[in-house]
Amino acid sequence: MVHAARRAAAVARGVRPRLLAALTFLSFVAPLAPPPARADGPVAVGEVTASQEDAARTIKSTLAEELPKVKVPAGRKYIVSASLVKLETKQSGSDATTQAVVSLAIRDAKDGAIRGVINGTGYVKSKAGDPTVTRTVVETAVRGATKNLPVVIAQAQ
Questions:
Q1: How far is CA 111 from CA 16, 71, 80, 137, in A?
Q2: Coil, strand or helix at 105
Q3: CB distance 46 to 60 below 8 Å
Q4: CB neighbours (10 Å) of residue 127?
Q5: Residues 152 and 122: beta-carbon distance below 8 Å
């Protein structure tokens, strides 16, 4: 019985430091996690994924500008999540054509059910190496997708 008590005490000593380390780690990581999507207005920005951080910021800011313009029936709330599906530049001599495709998933804020998916595409022709092209083409793709958002919301009812 004494042997079992010593073993239990040894296990507890080993578990406590690991538990403390895990809790410490989580206390630093949890504030870095994105807040859960909330539909404060009738249509809110949800998760945004993109391979480039600048593109993700552009998607978020463009959605933040466009979503308040969307008319929604009273009492309904939606969350729009976005993903940069394609961002590609093709060069031809000193010119370049950049294409972006953004996919929006429209979810009901109450139950999380997906009510629709919309794609928007943007094309920009420019001089090769123009630093503003990525932002412009991603904004164009997001605006193209949000243009059809009222249709999807109307069909979701």
A1: 39, 20, 14, 33
A2: strand
A3: no
A4: 10
A5: no
Residue 27: both structure tokens together: 């206390």
Q: List pLDDT tens digits, range 12-64.
A: 455 455 544 444 444 444 344 344 444 468 999 999 999 999 999 999 999 99
Architecture of domain 43-155: 2-Layer Sandwich (3.30)
CA distance 35 to 14: 33
Q: Where are the domains of the chain?
A: 2-32, 43-155
d(CA 72, CA 153): 7
Q: How many CA atoms lie within 13 A of 30 on its CB side?
A: 6
Say which residue the tokens 């109450």 belong to: 110
β-pair partners for 92: 95
Dihedral, CA atoms, 45, 47, 53, 59, nearest 10 degrees?
-30
pTM above 0.85, yes or no: no
Task: Decide if 109 contacts 32 (C-beta within 8 A).
Answer: no
- Cα–Cα distance, 96 to 42 (Å, whole number): 39
